[in-house]
Each structure stands twice: as structure tokens, then as C-alpha cells.
Amino acid sequence: MRTRQLEFFLAVTTCGTFSGAATELGVSQPALSQAIASLEGRVGTALFVRSPHGVRLTKAGREFEVPARAALAALRDAADAARRADRIESGALEIACHSTLAIDPTATLVGRFHRNFSDVTVRVRDVPERDLTERELFDLGVDLAIVFGELAGPSTTTVPLPPLELAAVLPGPADRTTTLEEVIAHGLVTTPVDSASRIFLSRHLESAAVDEAVAVEVEYTEAILPLVINGAGAAIVPARHAAAAASLPGLTVCELVPRAELDVAIAMPTGTPTAAAAEFISLAEGASR
């Protein structure tokens, strides 16, 4: 059953004649009559009683009319929604990100996207800090993920973002600059061994030394700074996280020497991104220049 057939049926119902409906629709009467006959064949019964004075609905036709109008309206609404989504006038953008990246860069990029496309709802969900495969992205139902470059699976399509600068957070008073070796001497408050920050530390220091220095291993990144404040050890965190906590009593934010950074990327399932995702990526790339 085609949309055009429903349009023809409803036009005949409204006009009361095949000729009037054909004129209103801008089609020939034979073409309209053939379409109605085909529709009746598909339904399996006559929908109109035909007479020299016009047509009227059969009982079956009257029963068919209401759902036909509803179906046609729903099809038009669906087409309008698809066109609006393609023009990014509405709909939603689904994003996954590591919680460590929620402030920088996710919050900045989402804010920039919202200022440009305020009618699009953005939903951000957390994903663990571990390798993220294309299948997992698909199962999550997200348009894209903002992840550490180390953890973007090889099966995903990736767009690099500016690297994330790291800083050290130490308990109590300390110098404003420090080294990784000095940080681990305080005992580490850190995320699990397969997380991006642990991978970074193991790449720059002896893995055994890092493991031995771990004082508290915690999955919840939001717990890291409170643990440092309460004397559980020192931590390596994103520089913007550290800057936001610089005024809190009981800790000192230190610049790492040499400078320390983690690669960040947008990861997507292979294939053509949604219109909203494509615009988000374009804005992110523009901000990187």
C-alpha cells in the first residue's frame, strides 16, 4: 500500500467524485481510477459505490477512512521529522565519554554545539576507561564517544582532539612544580590498571614502581580529589579539574615537569555519521585549529 494511494482515496472521499479529486490532485482521472482500483485490490474489497452522480463510501470504505487518515498523517509527520533531523532542527545527539573527560573537553564542546543547535537535545552517558570497540559503541546506541586516544578501539573511526594536559594534586603544602617521580613518592590515588591515566604513568615510569606506589585504587574519578584532601596520597588529574580544586584547603595543584598530556579523540562506529554528529565533529575540529 503506497502513500499516494491513501492520498487518492482521501481526496475522492472529500470531493465525492473521481473527476473532482483528479482535478484537485493534478492527475488524470484514468490514473486516479487505476490507483483506487489497485488499492481496493490490495484491501480485498470495494471502498466506493460508484454511480453516474458520483461516489460514496461502502461500509468497508467508512471503516477504512479513519485509520487511512491517521496513517497518512503519521507518514507525513515521520517525513517531516526526518527532514528536520537532517537539517539538525530537532532530535537528539547521543554522546558517551569517560568521566575524566566530562569537564574537559566534553562540557566545552557540548556547550558550543548547544549554542549553535539549541533545539537538539544532547544526552551524555558515562563509559568505563577501557578499550572501546565499534560493537560496544553500536550497543550503547550513541552517535559518538569522547575517549582517550589510548582506548579508542582499532575498529572505530577516530577524529583526534587537542591533547588533555595533566597536573599533579598533592596533599598539604608543596612546590608549584613537580615531577612524576616526586608525585608517586607521596603514594598514588589512581584509577584501575587499564585506565588511561595508569597507562600514561606506566609508559613514563617503571610499571612495577607505579604499582608499588598505589595507595588507593578507585574506579570513581570523582572520588580522587576528596581522597587527596583527606591525606590518602597524591594524584595525576586533568589540569582543568585541578584548577577547579586549587582553592580547596588541604591540597596543592602542581604543574608537571616535563609537561604531561594524554591523547583525546572522538570515536564513532564506521559509516556515515548522523547530521548532528557531523556538525559536532566539525565544531570540535574548528575549535582545535
TrEMBL record:
<keyword id="KW-0804">Transcription</keyword>
<keyword id="KW-0238">DNA-binding</keyword>
<dbReference type="InterPro" id="IPR036388">
    <property type="entry name" value="WH-like_DNA-bd_sf"/>
</dbReference>
<comment type="similarity">
    <text>Belongs to the LysR transcriptional regulatory family.</text>
</comment>
<dbReference type="InterPro" id="IPR000847">
    <property type="entry name" value="LysR_HTH_N"/>
</dbReference>
<dbReference type="Pfam" id="PF00126">
    <property type="entry name" value="HTH_1"/>
</dbReference>
<feature type="domain" description="HTH lysR-type">
    <location>
        <begin position="1"/>
        <end position="58"/>
    </location>
</feature>
<dbReference type="InterPro" id="IPR036390">
    <property type="entry name" value="WH_DNA-bd_sf"/>
</dbReference>
<dbReference type="InterPro" id="IPR005119">
    <property type="entry name" value="LysR_subst-bd"/>
</dbReference>
<protein>
    <submittedName>
        <fullName>LysR family transcriptional regulator</fullName>
    </submittedName>
</protein>
<dbReference type="GO" id="GO:0003677">
    <property type="term" value="F:DNA binding"/>
</dbReference>
<dbReference type="GO" id="GO:0032993">
    <property type="term" value="C:protein-DNA complex"/>
</dbReference>
<dbReference type="Pfam" id="PF03466">
    <property type="entry name" value="LysR_substrate"/>
</dbReference>
<keyword id="KW-0805">Transcription regulation</keyword>
<dbReference type="GO" id="GO:0003700">
    <property type="term" value="F:DNA-binding transcription factor activity"/>
</dbReference>
